[in-house]
Design brief:
single chain; 390 residues; alpha/beta; six-stranded parallel β-sheet; 13 helices; 46% helix
């Protein structure tokens, strides 16, 4: 518990009005590839114009790339890398949610490397080649609270051809500058606020039950869990509750630290398999759907009772004294956020897919299984999918 390594070079500017400080920062280049999603919100809410204004204050030119979708794909990464080269961009400004920030890491690497992204992916059908060239620097501006990607150099990319969704990244891809301004999150719709908030929560709960937890990651994770559990329902109920947005954003940003200090577990492997086969599934929704079955597996085996009790207390059950109290707190939070009725069948899943999804989880991101608090077989994972199906 007392042994850990924390090395994060990101200059993090957090708080309301943080975006207005961008123009005064030292930029890592002269021309930015300004990345946004293919949706309308960044433009409609004025965030794009405000970012451009800040880049102009910093005397930075830009080229706009607006092709990133939810669950970003290998093809769009390669398209973005070519765009950066063709427009002579020497750094990236990623303005958006987890998908944009995830894609930024991959594009930053592929803009300076030959071949295909999957040549450098470890896992599944990836060819496991090392990154050898210096990537483009990344400036990350978060518009959602979910991934903590503004503080790490990793993202999850889908390969539609092979039906894989695999983590890609390297410590050298960590953003040099991160802006987390809760004001930019006021317009996120309630359902997506919940999906993203639970993604952030599960980063920390997985760190807490994992074998790689240490005194620093646990301290940060419990602080994040407490804030998300208390304030996420308020943010879902009233998106313009700025205090709630601040607290959830805080919990999300801390995930970029706790995941670097420790690791997530097979729950993320399982969800990546789910959305690899069903690309329309939002990541947070998938995690919520399987959460009760996943955590109950370890509760029933008493794999880490003390950790579950600590989390239950952080989530508001002050007198928690048994691991089952965490499940009680988790299900209450899902009800309070209106996501307790999510169904796998609503996203096109069939019960017969359970073992396919289980084998896919191990194939795509089997490395996360090493962090599980006890052994987890493919049969165990398939049974979790069975228990989660409705």
């Amino acid at each position: 518990m007392m042994s850990f390594n924390f090395n994060n070079p990101t200059n993090l500017i957090f708080g309301c009005g943080a975006l207005d400080k961008l123009g005064a920062q030292k930029m890592p280049g002269k021309k930015a590839m300004l990345m946004i999603s293919c949706g309308k919100s960044t433009r409609a809410n004025g965030y794009l114009d405000r970012t451009i204004e800040q880049l102009q204050k910093a005397a930075v030119d830009y080229a706009l790339f607006d092709r990133i979708m939810e669950n970003p794909t290998k093809d769009v990464v390669m398209e973005g890398a070519a765009f950066a080269r063709d427009n002579a961009c020497d750094f990236i400004v990623a303005l958006g949610g987890g998908a944009v920030l995830d894609a930024a890491s991959a594009i930053a690497a592929m803009a300076t490397h030959d071949g295909d992204l999957w040549d450098y992916v470890f896992g599944g059908t990836g060819k496991c080649q090392p990154l050898v060239n210096k990537a483009l620097p990344v400036v990350a501006i978060a518009t959602t609270s979910g991934t903590g990607s503004e503080l790490n150099g990793y993202g999850v990319i889908s390969n539609l051809e092979t039906k894989e969704k695999i983590g890609f990244g390297h410590p050298a891809l960590v953003p040099v500058l991160a802006i987390v301004d809760p004001v930019l999150m006021l317009t996120v719709p309630p359902q997506y606020t919940a999906f993203q908030g639970f993604d952030a929560l599960f980063h920390h709960t997985e760190v807490m039950i994992g074998k790689k937890v240490n005194i620093m990651s646990e301290t940060l994770a419990l602080s994040a869990i407490e804030n998300i559990a208390q304030y996420l329902p308020l943010a879902v109920k009233d998106g313009h509750n700025l205090e709630a947005r601040e607290r959830v954003a805080y919990g999300s940003t801390l995930a970029g630290m706790t995941m670097q200090l420790s690791s997530t577990t097979a729950s993320h492997s399982m969800e990546h398999s789910m959305s690899a086969y069903h690309h329309n599934l939002p990541h947070g929704a998938g995690l919520i759907i399987i959460s009760e079955a996943f955590y109950r597996f370890f509760v029933e085996r008493h794999a880490c009772d003390a950790q579950f009790i600590k989390m239950a207390r952080a989530m508001g059950i002050e007198n928690a004294d048994k691991p089952e109290d965490f499940i009680t707190a988790l299900l209450k939070l899902q009800r309070d956020c209106g996501v307790d009725g999510l169904k796998m069948s609503d996203y096109g899943f069939d019960r017969s897919e359970s073992m396919i999804l289980a084998k896919g989880a191990r194939s795509m991101q089997g490395g996360l299984y090493a962090a599980n608090p006890c052994e987890l077989t493919d049969e165990d994972v398939a049974a979790m999918f069975d228990r989660s199906y409705r």
